[in-house]
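Fold Annotation — chain and its backbone

Encoding — discrete vocabulary of local shapes
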Amino acid sequence: MAMNVAQEDDDEVIASINTTPLVDVMLVLLIIFLITIPVVTHTVPVQLPKEAVNPLQTRPDAVELAVDREGKVFWNEKQIDAATLLAKLKTVSVATPQPEVHIRGDQETHYESIGRVITTCERAGISKISFITQPPARGG
């Protein structure tokens, strides 16, 4: 392709438009269309199955357990002792579907206190235990 180059002594204004970038873009688009059109038009004709949308099974409420820095356990914001915790978890574990147990532990809590709660959940037959944490701060 031809290109006009102005020299320093030449005071004339160049009136022609540089179409090289436009041609490059159009060629790329042409290549994309040439590649994708045969894929779309040459498919095997099949009859797809019809699917009815069924409502999802509702999940039971999760059991919220909290352990403070002294090791006290709270069930939905009410303090509870170890024997009562085991009895309540055994009652909850037979529900179908079984609810999840969410444990929120204070940052200063000893691992032993959290471990006792996990062991109690396992003894009660709870299969899903998760920990609630604070998401990291964004930015700086």
About this structure: The two ends are 51 Å apart (CA to CA). The helical segments are 20-41, 82-93, 111-124. The chain has a mean pLDDT of 82. The longest helix spans residues 20-41.
